[in-house]
Amino acid sequence: MVKHQPLQVYEKQVFVSFVTGIYGCRWKRYQRSQDESSRWECTWFVILCSSFLLLLFWGYFWLMARNDFNDFNWLVYNRSGEWRDETMPILASTTVGFSYVTFLLILALFHISLGQQLNLYWVHKMGVLATLLTTISGVIFVDDLWGDEWDILLASLQYTAPFLHLGALVTVTAISWLVAGYVVRREKSNIQVMVLFIYIVVLLALCLAPLTFTCPCIMDRHSLKPRPSVIGRRGAPMLAPENTVVSFNRALQHGASSLEADVTISVDGVPFLMRDHTLRRTTDVTKVFPARQYEDASFFNWTEIRSLNAGQWFLESDPYWTAASLTAKERSRIGNQTVCSLVEMLRLAAKANSSALLNIHKPPPEHPRYRSWFMDTLRAVQKAGIPLKRVTWTPDTDRGRVRGLHQTTSEKLSVEAIRQRGITSLTLHYSKASHKELQEYLANNVSVTVYPVNEPWLYSILWCSGVPSVSSDAPHVLRKVPYPIWLMSQSAYNFIWMTSDLVSVAIVIGVFFFQKWRMSGMQNYNPEHIMLSGVARRSSRDVNIMKEKLIFSELNNGLSSTEELSLYPENGYVRYSHGGLSR
Question: Does domain 230-479 fall into CATH 3.20.20.190?
Answer without folding.
Answer: yes
